[in-house]
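Q: Convert this sequence to structure tokens.
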Amino acid sequence: MRGEFVDVGGARLYYYAAGGGGGGEPIVFVHGFPTSSHIWRDVVPMLPSNRRVVVVDLLGYGRSDRPEGRDLSIKGHAERVLALLDVLRISYATVVGHDLGGGIAQYLAVRYPTRVARLALVSSVAFHCWPTREVRIVKATLPLTRYLPSMWVVSVLRSDLLRGYSDEQRGGHSVDMYIRPFEGAEGRDTLIEHLDALDPDETEALAPRLKDIVAPTAIITGAHDPFLGISVAERLHAEISGSTLEVIPDVRHFVPEVAPQRVADLIADLVAR
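A:
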């Protein structure tokens, strides 16, 4: 695998690529809030080796630049992902999105159907069913949050994220990596920008268009997701014609980390359709 930075609209996005180019359209992986490309690290090696894979850190996450006031809406992220694909000369791809990345993938499939060959929504946000109650409370108190110690804000985020793992000790390493960009006063301000941009009205606006998605679609969720219940995945399945639904037992929110082989197998099945 090789990683590098690409300038998109004046900001650097980090991505890494793997695999070859002779096995059909590439597979593009998009993470959610508040994670990074790290979430796909165990899935990618399990995919067919002849398939080109691109994994991106969204703006303000992982190794990519801080947002510095740039658009962090689902639309904003989606347009940057599309611009990245243009730079990489990828005209047509299977798009896999987790959490907020699933909302970005939905946006691309609805607004740019000729660019999305296949679609995989993993523990995806949708409709008006997100963010969690805890995040809504934090959003409501953002004017105060801006003045709280950064260590306190990060500790609250860490505790909430750990609920997405059945084994908190196992999830601790990943969570620490995800929250690293949000440490310190500058990191706290970046996190607040992300929180302020989380808007379920965006996915609710996409809902009437889900029936128009023609790309073969796989919907994947954990049976015990504390953030997005099975009902969200079931509704996506009902709205997207011809989609498949896989509920993975004994798994919470971070499905790609806890069940990477099953996720990779389901994606392999999807791209073989």
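Strands lie at 2-8, 11-18, 27-30, 53-56, 93-99, 116-124, 217-222, 244-248.
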